[in-house]
């Protein structure tokens, strides 16, 4: 009986190892097939599938349905959110959750009315600080979409700046190896995520549809206000017009961006030093002195050499 159990265990592990081996062979073959399909059809077969909508996105989609009813009012009540500015914010933020200018304008009015309803409900229920809720909830509802979209635009431009040097180095290496610019962009962006991939994927799509290259470059400039990214695109336009080698342009831009980032890090470090000094002077030092003084007082009152022992 024991021998049968041992044979069964050995057989189980043998089957498990063979299953893992065949599964790995399957993944390798699948990747080779996808690579071949990508090379033949010029379609990114490795592109990540669209994830299922999260619960937050589903709730937002339901809210925006009601927001569409208030779009006309929102376009008239446009304090700190004129349609021209909103269009620029959404473009730089990558049009999050499919927002349009009209839907954005309606969303802020819808949230304002929701804030009024919340304030009235808190007053009726007699909740604490209900009078403040009645005043500030509509204001928060109005400015919340503005703050979120502008913050998303700033975050997106920051992410674009962080990924740009590595992207430029990779493209420059591909170009020096003799690969064309369009093919290098298609291959390199597969290994990047975020706004950089979105922007150059859209650029490649525009080129495939027959949009003139300079016009596609101008579209990249209009959608992004990051200084380093704009410098790169302007250099590409100038290089295209003057005949400067593109590989050299990418390499020089990568070096310049890294130098700029190093200088910014040094600047931030220099600004942080006085702040650390202030914290040390006004927080750490007084607390340390109080702790030492407290220990001395406790030693005088409760220690072996307490003043009460002399009486």
TrEMBL record:
Please tell me whether the keyword Lipid metabolism is annotated for this protein.
no
Residue span(s) of domain Type II secretion system protein GspF: 167-292
Q: Which residues cross the membrane?
A: 6-24, 109-127, 133-151, 276-302
What's the source species for this entry?
Pontibacillus salipaludis
Location within or outside the cell: Cell membrane
How this chain sits in the membrane, per its record, is: Multi-pass membrane protein
**Keywords, alphabetical:** Cell membrane, Membrane, Transmembrane, Transmembrane helix
| Taxonomic lineage | Bacteria, Bacillati, Bacillota, Bacilli, Bacillales
- Superkingdom of origin: Bacteria
Q: What is this protein called?
A: Type II secretion system protein GspF domain-containing protein
Query: Quick one: where is this thing mainly located?
Result: membrane
């Amino acid at each position: 009986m024991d021998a049968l159990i041992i044979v069964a265990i050995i057989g189980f592990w043998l089957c498990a190892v063979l299953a893992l081996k065949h599964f790995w062979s399957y993944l390798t073959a699948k990747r080779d097939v996808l690579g071949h399909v990508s090379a033949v059809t010029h379609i990114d077969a490795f592109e990540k599938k669209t994830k299922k909508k999260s619960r937050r996105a589903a709730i937002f989609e339901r809210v925006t349905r009601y927001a569409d009813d208030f779009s006309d009012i929102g376009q008239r009540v446009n304090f700190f959110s004129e349609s021209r500015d909103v269009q620029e914010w959404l473009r730089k933020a990558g049009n999050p959750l499919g927002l349009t200018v009209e839907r954005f304008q309606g969303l802020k009015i819808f949230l304002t009315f929701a804030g009024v309803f919340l304030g009235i409900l808190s007053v009726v229920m007699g909740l604490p600080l209900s009078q403040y809720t009645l005043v500030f909830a509509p204001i928060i509802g109005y400015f919340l979409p503005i703050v979120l979209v502008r913050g998303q635009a700033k975050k997106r431009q920051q992410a674009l700046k962080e990924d740009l040097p590595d992207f430029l180095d990779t493209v420059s290496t591909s170009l020096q190896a003799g690969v064309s610019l369009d093919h290098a962009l298609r291959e390199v962006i597969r290994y990047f995520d975020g706004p950089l991939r979105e922007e150059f994927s859209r650029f490649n799509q525009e080129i495939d549809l027959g949009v003139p290259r300079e016009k596609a470059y101008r579209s990249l400039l209009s959608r992004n206000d990051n200084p380093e990214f704009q410098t790169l695109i302007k250099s590409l336009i100038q290089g295209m017009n003057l005949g400067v080698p593109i590989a050299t342009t990418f390499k020089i831009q990568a070096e310049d961006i890294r130098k700029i980032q190093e200088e910014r890090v040094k600047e931030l470090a220099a600004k942080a030093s006085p702040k650390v000094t202030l914290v040390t002077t006004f927080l750490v030092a007084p607390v340390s002195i109080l702790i030492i003084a407290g220990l001395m007082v406790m030693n005088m009152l409760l220690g072996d050499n307490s003043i009460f022992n002399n009486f």
